Amino acid sequence: MNIFKFENDEDFVQTGANLVASLLQSNPKAVLGLATGSTPIGVYERLVQMYRKGLVSFAKASSYNLDEYVGLSADHPKSYRSFMNKHLFDHIDIDLSRTHVPDGNAKDLTAECLAYDQRLENEGPVDLQILGIGSNGHIGFNEPDASLTSGTHVVDLLPETREANARFFPSVTDVPMQAITMGVGSILKAQQILLLVRGAEKAEAIRKAVKGPITTQCPASLLQSHPNVMVLLDEGAGQWLK
Ligand code: F6R
After folding, report:
1. 2-234 is classed CATH 3.30.930.10
2. Distance (Å, rounded) from C-alpha 142 to C-alpha 156?
3. Which residues contact 111 (CB under 8 A, 6 or more apart)?
4. Spatial contact of 93 and 63, defined as CB atoms under 8 Å apart
5. pLDDT tens-digit profile of 164-212?
6. Residues with CB under 6 A from ligand 1
7. pTM to 2 decimals?
8. pLDDT tens digits for 148-159?
9. Which residue is closest in CA terms to ligand 1's atom 10?
10. How far, in Å, CA of 16 to CA of 170, rounded?
11. Would the N or C end of the chain have less CB density within 10 A of its end CB?
12. Which residue's CA is minimally distant from atom 15 of ligand 1?
């Protein structure tokens, strides 16, 4: 793993955005794996700025998001599809028909998961997968457990994850109980992984992920088995790293 710690936010977001932009410059048809949550917002904002300056185009790219809440329609303001539209897709030249987010409102969730994996299989692999990490070590919504699922699946969100995400909802009781998530196997198929980590509350999780044993109790630790992972840390998240 290549681990970088940044003293200032400017360098953190620019480094993340540059990695995406240089991929698109060398491969305009790149398949991007995208994450939601607070952490990647700065990188998405920077990519929008770079697009407006003519430094990057998404016109031929496609994207696959990691996850979506079960029970929220795509147009629900708190859905991850709405998040992506608001923070990235509405402001760049990507063809919306080539952006993919699991349908959390599908009647048959099992069929939706299988179809998502099939599309990934046909159009993948993902060239660059952007990830955040939960304070409990989750990636996507692959929660710590005795075993992990490889492909896209429905997951029960742990109480700590619903608590952490309550800030996006009126109250914790409004946070959906379940989500569809790409599995760890699907995530690890990406050619390159960019893990973005911010804040002291993530320090222990990322320390365990990169220095601890590979264990399903810290799903992010499985990234140690991937040959091409870049980890960007801010001061808080990287306080344990000299
Ligand atoms: C989001 C996702 C999650 C988040 C993680 C960190 O699509 O897959 O794994 O990356 O929960 O979230 P933030 O960045 O909000 O702390």
Report:
1. no
2. 9
3. none
4. no
5. 999 999 999 999 999 999 999 999 999 999 999 999 999 999 999 999 9
6. 35-39, 66-67, 132-134, 138-141
7. 0.97
8. 999 999 999 999
9. 132
10. 31
11. C
12. 37
Burial 206-232 (b: 16+ CB within 10 A, else e): bbbbbebeeebebbbbbbeebeebbbb
The one-letter amino acid code at 80 reads Y
Strand residues in 98-149 grouped as ranges (E):
99-100, 128-131
In ligand 1, the atom with minimum distance to the C-alpha of 39 is 14
Domain boundaries, the chain: 2-234
Helix (H), strand (E) at residue 26: helix 9-26
CA separation, residue 174 to residues 115, 163, 168 (Å): 28, 10, 10
Whether cis (ω within 30° of 0) applies to the bond prior to 170 is no
Nearest to 43, CA basis, from 27, 19, 26, 22: 19
Torsion of CA 187, 60, 96, 180, to 10 degrees: -10
Residue nearest (by alpha carbon) to ligand 1 atom 8: 140
